[in-house]
Structures are given as C-alpha cells and as structure tokens.
Amino acid sequence: MATQRILDFLATRRPNGPCLVVDLDVVRDNFCAFEKALPDSRIFYAVKANPAPEILRLLASLGSSFDTASVAEIEMALDAGATADRISYGNTIKKERDIARAFDLGIRLFAVDCVEEVEKVARVAPGARVFCRVLTDGEGAEWPLSRKFGCVPTMAVDVLRHAHGLDLEAYGVSFHVGSQQTDLTAWDRALADAGRVFATLAEEGIVLKMVNMGGGFPTRYLKDVPAAQAYGQAIFGALRRHFGNRIPETIVEPGRGMVGNAGVIKSEVVLISKKADNDNVRWVYLDIGKFGGLAETMDEAIRYPIVTGRDHDQMAPCVLAGPTCDSADVLYEKTPYPLPLTLTIGDEVLIEGTGAYTTTYASVAFNGFEPLRSYVI
Amino acid sequence: MATQRILDFLATRRPNGPCLVVDLDVVRDNFCAFEKALPDSRIFYAVKANPAPEILRLLASLGSSFDTASVAEIEMALDAGATADRISYGNTIKKERDIARAFDLGIRLFAVDCVEEVEKVARVAPGARVFCRVLTDGEGAEWPLSRKFGCVPTMAVDVLRHAHGLDLEAYGVSFHVGSQQTDLTAWDRALADAGRVFATLAEEGIVLKMVNMGGGFPTRYLKDVPAAQAYGQAIFGALRRHFGNRIPETIVEPGRGMVGNAGVIKSEVVLISKKADNDNVRWVYLDIGKFGGLAETMDEAIRYPIVTGRDHDQMAPCVLAGPTCDSADVLYEKTPYPLPLTLTIGDEVLIEGTGAYTTTYASVAFNGFEPLRSYVI
Fold first, then answer.
1. Which residue of A203, A292, B154, B277 has the smallest Cβ count within 10 Å?
2. Any domain includes A64
3. A95 and B298: CB-CB below 8 Å?
4. Hey, what's the signal peptide range on this chain (chains A, B) (predicted)?
5. Using a CB-CB distance cutoff of 8 angstroms, which residues of chain A are in contact with residue B152?
6. What is the rounded CA–CA span in Å between residue B222 and residue B260?
7. In a domain, B74, yes or no
8. What is the mean pLDDT of chain A?
9. B187 CB contacts (<8 Å, ≥6 apart)?
C-alpha cells in the first residue's frame, strides 16, 4: 500500500522523525471507486478522517460533498471550494451557537438523534433539513460503535415528527453500521429499520426523502472493483426490498474508505529489548505510538500492516509500543506482532493504511513530542 | 477542589469553550507537602504531567528538580530556570541522537532498562550517570502500569554492570509502584528488590548511590499532613529495613501528586438525551471528552469529581460522553455517573482534579475541535 510515489518521496526528502505521507492519486482512485460502486448515492466525505487541505481541495474538485463534525470543519470544507449545499453538519451533538454559526455559513442539513437537538436546530436554523440517526447493533464491524449516536427507530419517528411540527424539513434517516463492516446483512437490517420509519411517517403525511447510509465501507473491497460493485448491488437490493419502487435519495459518508489506504506513516525503531533474559517476546519501541497518531490501536482494535526492509528474514512475535513515558502507550501486546528477528535499532518501518484518523488524533505535545507531521503529495 | 481563586477567575473572565484553570498556590502547597513528607528525598517533578511554563518556573524557584521525557521537555525545564544538574532524562526509550542532544545541554542523569539503551548512552554521553528501572507488579494502584518500562531485578544487575564496564557511572535503581498507589507494602516490595540489586553489585565492587522511587503518591494523602508524614515514615522504614544503615540518596518523581488537584476543567453540557423512551439512563454530552484532554478516562480508569450548580437536587445515573463524532469518545458508561436530574443543556460543570495529564493529551484538532486551553493563575 506504500505507493511508488510515497516511497520516492521518502527516499528523496528523508524527513526526520515520524510522519504521514498521503498519496492523492489513491484518494482520487477511491473516490472514483465509490462513485462506480454506488452510482446513485451522493458521497459526503467524512472530513474528520483527514482534514488536510490538499485532500479537501481534491475531493471538492471531484464533486464530493462533505460530512462535518464542527464549525471548524465546515469552514475547512468551504475554504476547499465546496459550496454550503454540499456540506452537512453531521454531528448529533452540537452547541446551539454552533448550529447558528453553521446556518449563517449557509448550512441547511443537520443530523439529530433526539427531540432536544431538534429544538436547538428549530430555534436557530429555521426551515433547515434534519435527518435522524437510528441506532444499529454494529455487529460484524471491526470497530463497533457504542450506543453514543442515534436512537431506536420508534423514537426516530417521534423526533422527525417533532421536527416537522417545528417547521423544519423532516428530511430522512441516517445510520452507521460500524467501521469496516463486512457483513452485508448489517446494511439490510439497518435499511429495514429506515424503511419502517419512512412508512410510519408517510401514513401521517410526512414524506421523508433521504437515507444517509453513513460510512463503514471496508477499504479492501474498494481495491477490487467487482467486489465494490457487488457491495453496491447488495445495498441497492436492500433498498429495493425495503422501499419498493420509491427508493429515496441516498448519501454515503466514507472517511477511512476514502483516505485510509492512501497514507503511510514512516517511523523509526527506537529500542528493542527484553524484560528478562528468558522472555520469549521482544519489546519493540517505535517513535510513534498511541498519543502520536495511532490512537486507533486502542484495545488493539485496528491492526495496521507494518513493513520493514527485513521482511524476508525470519519473523518472531513482538510487543510493539510507542515512545512516551506512559505505560498505556502500547500498540500491540495481547496479540503480539510478528516482526523480523534481524530488526535493529534505527531501522525505518512503514505503517500502512494510516491515512485516516491519525494526524488529528495526535496529541498536542504529550511528553514534549510534537504532533504527527503530514505530507500530502 | 475548585479553589476560590479558580472560581473567581471563571466568574470574572468567563472563558468561552472548555478550559483548564490551574491554581499555582495549590502547586506550591503540594511541593511543600512533599518536602515535609519526604525531607530526605530530592523532588523531580514529572514535567509530562503538566509542562505549563508558569508551573515549571514556580517549581524551579522552589528548588524542585525535573524528570523529563524528551529533549523538548529538557529545554522547557532549562527555560524555566532549572540548571542541567537538576534535570534527569527519565524516559527509558530514547533515540541516540536525542541522548547526544541532552548531553550537549548538560544532562548527566539518564534512565535505562536494558543493555541496548546503556550502549547508546555510553556512545554519546560518556561518563554519564545511569539508573536502571526495575519492574514492579503495580498491584494496588488505580492506574496500574504495564510491563512497558523496566526489567526484572536480576537483569538490572546485568544492565548496571554493563554500564560500569562502559565507564558510565552505575548510579542507582528506579521503580514506579503505579499511579495513586495506596498500598504501602508495594513500596516495601520494590525497595526490597532495589536493596538486592545494590547488595549484589556491591559484592562486585560496584557501589550504587541512588534509589529513584518514581511517582505514584496518591494526592489525597498530601492534603492530610499527618497521613503524608506517615507515608514518608513508612517509606523511610522500608529503606532502613532493606538498606540497613547505608540508606542511599532518594529521588521522587511526583506528577499527578504535584498538579492534579491544582486544576479544574470548566465544561458545558451540550446535550442531554435518551436513546429510547424507556431508557433508564440519560446520556449527558459535554464539550470536552477523551480527545479533548480527558484521555485518562480510558477504560474508565480515572473517575474525576464533577461539580454542577444543581448538586443539591436529586441525582440519577448518566452515561457521560464527549462532543466528537467518535463512538469511543465516552467517558463513563460501564459505571454510569450520578448527576442531578435537573441538569440542563447549557449548564456549566466543573471537572475537578484535572491539573495533570489533560492539556498535553488533548488532540491537535480531532473533529476540528481546538486543543484544551489552559490558564495558570
């Protein structure tokens, strides 16, 4: 996944310290793959995955829309050339003054998941469109979601009815099946729930128009175009099944799927040691860890591919840890990571699939280490 | 724990958005309490806990020494007025070029926990003092340490012997009993291990001089001076027991104990909602969460006291979450947090005991939210 362009950049520039390099060609390919797999859906890139201006400008120029989590992200998307009608304020947790600011900036599409949030929107963004997030069970996802966002489908009916009553446009339903979701029946179950919300409100004369299917598209399907199309077809089939011949507009919000495989982190082995002479695992310490950008290794949820210059040598399991004086800054310990026995202090390693959810997760200055630098090429 | 000075500052300045306010008077009190409780130990403040320049300057002026994790922290301590002989490079995971840079800056005291690290120090910091970190079991601590730092005591003997052979000064042993350690026998066990390392090397003519007892002193003991003195006496007793009448110099490295209770985070309730009509817990969303500075709520390890203006009203359990679009950004869910039933969107809450491990843990810009602002008064 380290493209030739990334390898050339690293070989030529030889940046000091850990850094992320993102290849825009891969982002472009991903955008096209999404368009091909889901030709009838609008693509709202989840800005939080990687808000680098170069990425936002590329996607804006390709016609992408943008899912944002804060006023700052709205401003970034606008700065990148997106018009306000291509931006949604997708965070269900918003201060009323931030909703007002977004409305001033032209934003008309807001996520909600309760009556209380609807009332904020109604007060400061009159007439805006709202979509209600519905809870899904997240089964089958590599990074399952908690119950933090969304409400049960029966409550979504109340929420959207309340919005309608406050002269907002009850616009649709959203869900998120969990990150890297590979179980297609998860989409089917969520679309069935969405279909029931549509049907219930339609009986009262409230006609919803949109289903926001969120993110969760596994990156690996995208590289394989037939698989991506099969994915799209499965989703289309589920829409047909649950909405009949009144298929609504659909939105998708890829984040990791758009930029995850476009980025590679270059890191350096700082130390290799054992804790006792008879230990059977080595400890390998890198110059990047949980607080330097690899927060998603939390609970060892995401297991990044790691490439070294010695991968043809014999491998043995290691505990992999970051460079800070924090004992929680361990990347992989429960399931040790196989690395070459010849790995040496000072070696460079490439951590692949790190284009999403790394740079902005980095801490400001924990232990005095500077945040992860990023190069978008 | 919100002092009158902090309350006055918040009432007068009314800062917008979440922020940390640290009262330097409390830091001064804590420093004096440590001096009183452990009159024979040198105090090395763990800079990583909170590197605000005002805190470092105060502690430097009070005569504190400094435990640092990186070259950047060394530079901060020097800038604050500490001389190089009052600074240790306490991270066992260091790039060789960073050791060289520290040596250039005058640093002569380095932590190690393996032969490989000793060799780096010997190459670029000739003649420096090294102390070897020994693994402890961390039992009884609220924030137990993994095996990330240190080696078993028998290996520490080899490591220090190796240092001696490379013309470094084999200076001592360090350990860390785990954060907020309340079990005094943990100190006794660790000091027994340290004593055995001293004795074994003394037989070979290598005379260690120092025991670095790390941090882990529970804040609550400090407020109560008799208890702090009892703590000091228990440690002194253990030293006497394991070192006889050749008690070594001792170092302590308080971080949380020095600044934790000096800081209060002001936050705002962004949303209160339920996920279903029949849910028995409310979800309360604050404008600060795991990625905005409260990283230590990871696995609900640290449970901060939260004060609202309605605490005289009836309380009921809540799930408490942060404002980002990340489902992992939940502070307390497994053990819901009791908050007043009358709590309302827009209310201000104070999160106490947040002076340590908050500002620098904050992410750079996750979801577009700015890092935690900090005022030191």
1. A203
2. no
3. no
4. none
5. 275-276
6. 11
7. no
8. 92
9. B177, B181, B213, B234, B235, B238
The predicted pLDDT at position B219 comes to 65
Q: Flag whether A295 is in a domain.
A: yes
Q: How many CB atoms lie within 10 A of CB B59?
A: 26
φ, ψ of residue A235 in degrees (nearest 5): -65, -45
Q: How large is the average pLDDT for residues A239-265?
A: 94
Contact A368 B135 (CB under 8 A): no
Last residue of a domain, one of A254, A286, A311: A254
- Burial (CB < 10 A; 0-12, 13-18, 19+), residue B215, is buried
Give the whole-angstrom CA distance, residue A143 versus residue A181.
8
Distance, CA of A130 to CA of A88 (rounded, Å): 10
Same domain? B234 vs B274: no
Average pLDDT per block of 10 residues along chain B, 377 residues long: 95 95 96 89 96 98 98 98 98 98 98 98 98 79 71 96 98 88 83 96 97 81 65 88 94 93 97 91 95 88 92 96 93 94 97 94 89 95
Percent of chain A residues topping a pLDDT of 70:
95
Q: Are residues B284 and B183 in the same domain?
A: no
In a domain, A354, yes or no: yes
* Whether residue B341 sits in one domain with residue B208: no
- Alpha-carbon gap: A94 to the closest alpha carbon of chain B (Å): 6
Q: How many domains does chain B have?
A: 2
A325 and B150 in contact by Cβ < 8 A?
no
User: A197: Cβ–Cβ under 8 A, 6 or more apart, which residues?
Assistant: A132, A134, A153, A156, A157, A160, A173, A208
